[in-house]
Amino acid sequence: MEDEEQVKAAGLKWMKRATGKVPVWVADEDDVKAGYIPKTVNLQYLVDQPEMLKAKCDSLQAEMLLWRTGHRGDPLHFDGTVKSLLSIYETHKRSPYHKLKPGSLVPYNHYLKNLRGHIGPVRIDDISGVDLMEWHDVWSENGLHVAAATTARAVLLAATSFGIMLRLPGCAALNVIMRETTKALPHPKPRKQSATAAQITAARSAAHSKGRPSSALAYALCFETTLRLWDVIGQWWPMDQGGISEVLDAERETKWFGLRWEDIDPDLVLRYMPSKTADRSGAEISYSLKKAPMVMEELKHWPVELRRGPVIVSEETGIPYRAKIFGQRWTVDRKAAGLPAALWARDLRASGITEGRASNASLDDARKVAGHSDISTTEKYDRAVLEAADRFADARIKRREQSGNGSGNGR
After folding, report:
1. What's the pTM?
2. HEC string of the chain?
3. What is the pLDDT of residue 389?
4. Which structural domain, as residue segments, surrounds residue 277?
5. Which candidate in 1, 199, 211, 357 could, as Cys together with 195 as Cys, close a disulfide (CB 3.0–4.6 Å)?
């Protein structure tokens, strides 16, 4: 018998997928337009439990109808369900959710919505390790997207950790169960993609051919100095978060933070505190751009009088890039340069570190240059960090000279 003939319920639809038909609860279109969430809820995990599937759909339908009457509820009220825990995590003024960087907010908001729709009505004290394993299969689409399932669990774990701080019933036990169950679940394979100096040179040339020296400079900075991409191109924050910035996008009500020309001194020494370490170790990156051949070549396109404000600015808009747009530009340049499709723009930092290690730069110097949190007290001094950067850069330049790649011309 067809699935849709086996189970029928309000809002239930059977969607065609490559693996067969999947049961999905779909909210009323008018309610969605009015702001109701979730719009859809994947119920594949109940496909073999028809009674539970119907009951789940009835519950979701009832919640939507209650919302339609104007009931919203107190977002800080904990009723023992996952949905109430996630609401508290998102809205409580002391929640670490409010300290998430813009780059982390996007996936967190995505998975918070998915979790609320999928397991929102489930009680915290009813969740077992077996439940988590079954949900892993759903979230990962039976192992196809392990990283997605891992991130979903990380978001739920963050919410339970805050629940422990608030002494919410069941959160401590669930936190332990999640940590133990995670040991038995598959983990995403670490990225191994790495670009060579020649490939970075090709990408820079491609960017120049499209009239985007800003992109070429960004590639050079990430690869040579090993700064993270989001620090080089910067991040756009909501107006009510972060500190003070004079770089504003009034239309989108956002402000920008990132690498500025003022972070490079007259001797061309870059000193910058990455956003990832600013709230943790406070480690500052120091790198002499005179020992970054690709950056020095790109700087020829930037007269001294233009070196003020954000370093990387879109030629099209006159303001720093949005991460999504920069990623699209990278895809264009990557394809034009003939680089592997699996190579991401954020792999450029790892590529620089890889080149340094392959050039026999010491692990300790590489760690200092990368600004990793596990650093010694002496690394807090500019001299120690800059000397490490010099040794690191020298080893890389020597390797290029020996291989015949040179620094590579950007045009």
Report:
1. 0.70
2. CCHHHHCCCCCEEEEEECCEEEEEEECCHHHHHCCCCCCEEECHHHCCCHHHHHHHHHHHHHHHHHHHCCCCCCCCCCCCEHHHHHHHHHHCCCCHHHHCCHHHHHHHHHHHHHHHHHHCCCEHHHCCHHHHHHHHHHHCCCCCCHHHHHHHHHHHHHHHHHHHHCCCCCHHHHHHHHHHHHHCCCCCCCCCCCCCHHHHHHHHHHHHHCCCHHHHHHHHHHHHHCCCHHHHCCEEEECCCCCCCCCEECCCCEEEECCEHHHECCCCEEEECCHHHHCCCCCCEEEEHHHCHHHHHHHCCCCHHHCCCECCCCCCCCCCCCHHHHHHHHHHHHHHHCCCCCCCCCHHHHHHHHHHHHCCCCHHHHHHHHCCCCCCHHHHCHHHHHHHHHHHHHHHHHHHHHHCCCCCCCC
3. 84
4. 197-403
5. 199
